[in-house]
Sequence to fold (340 residues):
Amino acid sequence: MKLGIIGLPSAGKSTVFEALTQTISMAEKKGENRINTMQVPDERLAALSNMFEPKKTIFARVEYFLPGMMGSLKDQKIWTQVRDCHALIHVIRNFSGYGFDEPMPLDDFNALDQELILADLMVIEKRMERIEQDRQRGKKEYAEELALLNQCLKHLENEMPLRKFPELTEAPALKGYGFVSAQPVLVLFNNDDEDDRLPVIENLTNKEDCMVIRGKLEQELAQMSAEEAEDFLTEFKISASATDRVIQRSCELLGLISFFTFVKKEVKAWNVKQGTVAVDAADVIHSDMKRGFIRAEVIAYNDLIEAGSYQEARKKGTVRLEGKNYTVQDGDVITFRFNV
Ligand SMILES: Nc1nc2c(ncn2[C@@H]2O[C@H](COP(=O)(O)OP(=O)(O)O)[C@@H](O)[C@H]2O)c(=O)[nH]1
Ligand SMILES: [Mg+2]
Fold:
């Protein structure tokens, strides 16, 4: 899962990036991209690791990407760079002081959302010009693509981001576009240290996925030892660090579930979209597994824990054989049988 961090200048993007990735600022260079991966925390994986005692326990990972160009929003390069992200985290300034004006979260949100809309408009206009040239030269017809693009255009011209029209942007003819206004967005209010409430803002908190982070506080937290952090969490009444909360919300936003695999050496967690069938889950691991897919041996996490061991579960009959079209469930422990 790749998450792009965007926001207006001074919203606290760098601060939030450091909080989420538990990195320390190495004098960030202007214009330079920052990227870092973190584990997707999952207690079930630890329990499985206890059971199987593998050499390695491998968590699913999330990649945070902070484009370095965010100071110049009109530069289309930023938007090209975030196009392959699975979701965007839109950081909004909700703190004041230190020479900052009163925060204006709704205005800020809309200002950046308009940039996303503009970026997509430009992509569509360019493509349409191209299609027109091709048509004049008697090349193939693009009737369907054009019709879909026109629908997108209409929404964008009405200042509506394309994420409000998933059935449209998921059409096969539009798959390759990677519209930035179509990407799922998690709105992250960057609050002052003392304030952990989600502001209620009509037209924003009721329309978008929103959550709060106290960026500066969490950035400090991210740099503490586990011991120091514990005191700090209690003092500021933080239930879990921002890292965990943001990852969890991002998974929810994207409709991701986890399944687990084990071989002698390693127990591993994988993220897939809800509704993924067994053969496509196998593909996430290796394309050979999809090609040569025979069966999936599946047990629900809870059944396995209850049985105490894989052998016991087998005896109890809770290990099932499933076919290609079995819909993977969150927590499934799967062994793929394949032959290539
Ligand atoms: N009070 C307060 N200040 C913050 C917070 N987050 C960031 N800042 C300050 O705001 C300024 C801009 O933050 P920065 O992360 O560089 O913003 P960016 O331009 O979006 O990357 C810096 O001086 C930060 O220390 C916060 O949550 N609370
Ligand atoms: Mg910055």
User: Anything to note?
Assistant: The radius of gyration is 23 Å. The CA atoms of residues 197 and 212 lie 7 Å apart. The mean pLDDT is 92. The pocket of magnesium ion (ligand 2) is lined by residues 13-14 (CB under 6 Å).
